[in-house]
Amino acid sequence: MSSLTQTGAAASPDDSVKTGHARQRSLSRIGLVIAVIAVAGLIAAPFFVYPVFLMTVLCFALFATAFNLLLGYVGLLSFGHAAFFGGAAYFAAHAAKVWGFEPLSAILVGAVGAGLMGLAVGALAIRRQGIYFAMVTLALSQMIFFIFLQAPFTHGEDGIQGVPRGHLLGLIDLNQPLNIYYFVLAIFLFGFFAVWRIVNSPFGHVLQAIRENENRAISLGYRVDRYKLAAFVMSATIAGLAGAMKAIVLQIATLTDVAWQMSGEVVLMTLLGGMGTIFGPSLGAAVVVTMQNYFATSDVPVTVIIGVVFVLCVLLFRRGIVGEAIRLMKR
Amino acid sequence: MTMLFGIPLPALLGQLLIGFINGSFYALLSLGLAVIFGLLRVINFAHGAQYMLGAFTAYLLLFYTGLGFWPALIVAPLMVAAISALIERTMLSRLYDLDHLYGLLFTFGLALIIEGTFRWYYGAAGQPYAGPALLSGGTNLGFMFLPNYRGFVVVASIVICLSVWLLIEKTRLGAYLRAATENPQLVQAFGVNVPLLLTLTYALGAGLAGLAGVLAAPIYQVSPLMGSNLIIIVFAVVVIGGMGSIGGAIVTGYVLGILEGLTKVFYPEASNIVVFVIMAIVLMLRPAGLFGKEI
User: Fold this and answer.
1) CB distance from A74 to chain B under 8 Å?
2) B22 near B261, Cβ under 8 Å?
């Protein structure tokens, strides 16, 4: 089974081998510069842009980054990541509203819950490969959707509404827009850094070896299934972190976040931004959320726009924005 | 009243019939998916949208041209097949050399476009569609009451499944198809037009989805989202059966429909997750699927 990124991104298969290390070093230096600028921009942003919009973007950016850990670096297309994102949103909302947890612990409850769900789903899904993996994750997430639909604590179609933002660690009032914004930014940066650290660790390199050639990784003695499952659980946990954060920010957890359309959206964000790149998914998320906001008030149905962007990306723009940028820089 | 396992017999048989009918649609749709996957190696996410398109075409034919159920049963699937063939030729065929997941993503986008457009025009609510007058009413079988149209759907789906199975297993065209599944380069070298074969296969699969849609129109309401809810269950059916065999896809479809119907009788809360639970169990015990080979 050839990998998704390999066939998609590498026009000539040998260039990734030839210049691999030198290129990676210069690219990572550029990456560092971009990261510093981006963080500075994000710190200044709430003074210029509506904070709730920014926070929504950050939640989806973290979600897409977590998803990309799996698709971009292990080559596994999960079509059920909404289950972890939306599931965590429910857990966090319930913890904050019903159990009266302060926001950080509520978010942790969500992330841990998503991680456990990821363990169960992942253990089943990694038994199949490629296209079947996508179908199994989709089917299992649909099952989770129905469970959430019927479970009493989610309140069915109404969702959990009026989730309190509360006081961080009992001290900082998160009802203040700037307070919650920097809280969300801190969690986003933590999650983003975690993914970056995972990808660039020896563990992450084994994951990429699995993506490039699973059979060879097996023959080198790696227990591929364990690596895949570990990556799946990490991805699910961080996706859960994003979803839990969204529940606190928007003060609501609904079925929309667990539905399969959401799983499709995160695929699109990653694909559009550039899968297998560290910044791509965040950029893709920003573009998609902006687009949704823009078209929400127009006459054009958002689903159709999303579908058109999807088709265009797959047909013409498989490297995504950041992937194309990297290719241009390499020239 | 006759009782079986503490359930009134008519209730049990009624749910069995509903299960059988749902199973007929699972079988028709997973058959189409298996046919397309066998040759194109594409998971056709747009299958649900094509099913919806079939139902809507029948509805629109009646609304604008007055063509009733029987002509629509022929015309609508052909129209769905023609549109799908065009899409395959112009767009999908560019993705064959890439990872198979791109085919899934492309057809996913396609499904969003088709369903989104219909939802925009017609809203999410369902439109009623009258079945053929010839099959209105029902028959009393003595032990239960069978609406004629539902009986017809069960028979029709079995006939269609058998014909497709015969087409693939027993005809020359089917032999080309199976050969091209095994080794497309070699078949091309023998002078068979494989790209044409691919287009025909996609059109056949999509046409089957359209046909299922027309059959479904009088039973379920014609709504833009009728396909997307169904297709994920059909994916699970396909994972359970394994896409290795056409026959396996058909049998799994019927069996799961019936099992789902039985669940409605004995444990209604679980009826919409039972197929997924079975999928999980099959994955644990036989990861390749019941009829599948590892690929």
Assistant:
1) no
2) yes
Residue A319 token pair: 């490297």
Which of A8, A264, A313 is the closest to B98 by Cβ?
A8
Residue A238 lies in a domain: yes
Say whether A314 and B106 touch across the interface (CB within 8 A). yes
CA dihedral A24, A26, A27, A28 (to 10 degrees): 80
Tell whether the model's pLDDT for residue A11 goes beyond 60.
no
Q: For residue B121, what pLDDT is reported? A: 86
A259-318 residues touching B, CB cutoff 8 A: 260, 264, 267, 271, 301-304, 306-311, 313-315, 318
Best mutation target, A70, A143, A267, A302, to test chain B (most B CBs within 10 A): A143
Backbone torsion region of residue A152, taken as left when φ is above 0, otherwise alpha when ψ lies between -120 and 50, otherwise beta: alpha
In terms of C-beta density within 10 A (0-12 exposed, 13-18 middle, 19 or more buried), how is residue B28 classed? buried
Hey, which bits of chain A come out as E strands? Answer: 160-161, 167-168, 172-173, 252-253
Cα(B209)–Cα(B49) distance, integer angstroms: 9
Please give the structure tokens belonging to residue B244.
């290795």
Taking a C-beta distance cutoff of 8 angstroms, is the pair B27, B249 a contact?
yes
- Contact list, B49 vs chain A (CB under 8 Å): none
In this prediction, residue A15 carries a pLDDT of 46
Q: What is the DSSP letter of B95?
A: G
Question: What is the CATH code of the structural domain delimited by B13-129+144-285?
Answer: 1.10.3470
Tokens representing B255? Answer: 């069996």
Structure tokens at A199: 């990808």
Euclidean distance between the first and final Cα of chain A, in Å? 30
Q: Helices B9-40 and B172-182: crossing angle, nearest 10°?
A: 70
Q: Which pLDDT score is estimated for B285?
A: 84
The answer to whether B266 touches B56, Cβ cutoff 8 Å, is: no
**Calpha distance A176→A297 (Å, rounded):** 27
Total number of domains constituting chain A: 1
Look at residue B2 in the predicted model and tell me its pLDDT. Answer: 64
Nearest to B273 by CA among B241, B233, B242: B233
The rounded radius of gyration (Å) of the Cα atoms in chain A is: 19
Residue-number span of the structural domain to which A67 is assigned: 50-260
Is there a contact between B91 and A315 if contact means CB atoms under 8 Å apart? Answer: yes
CA distance linking residue A175 with residue A246, whole number of Å = 14
On whether the CB atoms of residues B59 and B217 are closer than 8 A, the answer is: yes
CA A80 to chain centre: 12
For tokens 């809507």, the residue is B56
Q: Dihedral sign for Cα B234, B238, B243, B246, please.
A: negative
Q: Complex ipTM, two decimals?
A: 0.85
pLDDT-derived band of residue B202, with 50, 70 and 90 as boundaries?
very high
Percent share of chain B, pLDDT over 90? 31
Q: What is the mean pLDDT of residues B101-115?
A: 91
Q: Number of H helices and number of E strands within chain A?
A: 15, 4
Domain ranges of chain B: 13-129+144-285
Q: Residue A329: inside a domain, yes or no?
A: no
